[in-house]
Design a protein that fits this description.
158 residues, alpha+beta
Length: 158
């Protein structure tokens, strides 16, 4: 079991503010936290170096770019030792946005976006099922109801 890095209430407040708006200026965060901009900058650098804060990302609407179908594809590996080679092949499919090694029914679970159902079928037949040693099962998402960050708990409230 990995040891959790230590962080305090100021770190938690910074994380909460950034999770609500990753583009929020450091000086605005500093004002809301009652500290200097330099202190916020140092804390963010510490959170990055400890891999607590993994980075900043822009969320792009898939449908605005013509990707109207979101699907989850469960994969069964004929030989679980093939994970690395299968993952390397799946990494080459640009429509796949997430890959998870799982327990339970599937060995792997991918999330992907396609332009439409015809494109999804093409990805499954031409790109996924051509990977040696896997079988697939697909679930189509009709609508993402919400997405959020994990809850950030203050150390004093644990």
């Amino acid at each position: 079991m990995s040891q959790q890095p230590h962080f305090d209430n100021l770190d938690c407040k910074i994380l909460k503010l950034l999770s609500q708006n990753a583009r929020k200026p450091f000086l605005e965060i500093a004002r809301e936290c009652g500290v200097s901009g330099a202190a916020v900058h140092q804390r963010i650098q510490k959170l990055l170096s400890q891999n607590i804060l993994l980075g900043f990302e822009s969320l792009i609407s898939p449908s605005a770019l013509g990707y109207d179908t979101c699907a989850y594809v469960g994969m069964f590996l004929n030989d679980p030792s093939q994970f690395d080679s299968v993952a390397a092949e799946l990494r080459k499919v640009p429509e796949i946005v997430e890959l998870h090694y799982t327990t339970g029914k599937y060995d792997l679970l991918v999330k992907l976006y396609a332009h439409n159902n015809k494109h999804l079928l093409q990805i499954i037949h031409d790109r996924l099922q051509s990977v040696t040693g896997i079988r697939t099962e697909t679930l189509i998402s009709f609508k993402e109801e919400f997405r959020r960050q994990i809850p950030i708990m203050n150390p004093d409230n644990e």
